[in-house]
Design brief:
2 helices; mainly alpha; 89% helix; rod-shaped
Length: 106
């Protein structure tokens, strides 16, 4: 039991603890927002990289076919296909698919 003398001190301590909890919650929310934003930016960059790579590989495959290098052209085409799938997965999934593993741990 808190004595009458110490009651204002206990109330102040409770108020300070409440404010600290609110500030902590705000800091966590801000950190989540910043992390989500950064990850979304990176997802977009990776998706664009896959797209660029797929395009370059398709062009390379075409050039190789023109040079009668069909076997290597096929390999370039297949690799372009995989890069294209990477792009589509990241592009279509959006941040929700990309961030689901992260948000479930926070």
């Amino acid at each position: 039991m808190v004595s009458q003398e110490h009651k204002p001190l206990a109330e102040t301590a409770g108020h300070v603890a409440e404010q600290a909890g609110e500030k902590m919650g705000q800091a966590v929310d801000m950190a989540k927002e910043q992390t989500t934003s950064r990850l979304e930016d990176q997802r977009e960059r990776v998706a664009a990289g896959f797209y660029t790579t797929a395009h370059a590989l398709r062009q390379t495959g075409q050039q190789l076919r023109e040079q009668d290098q069909g076997t290597i052209a096929t390999l370039a085409d297949r690799t372009a296909q995989q890069a294209g799938l990477g792009h589509m997965t990241l592009d279509a999934g959006g941040k929700d698919t990309f961030l689901r593993p992260v948000s479930s741990t926070v």
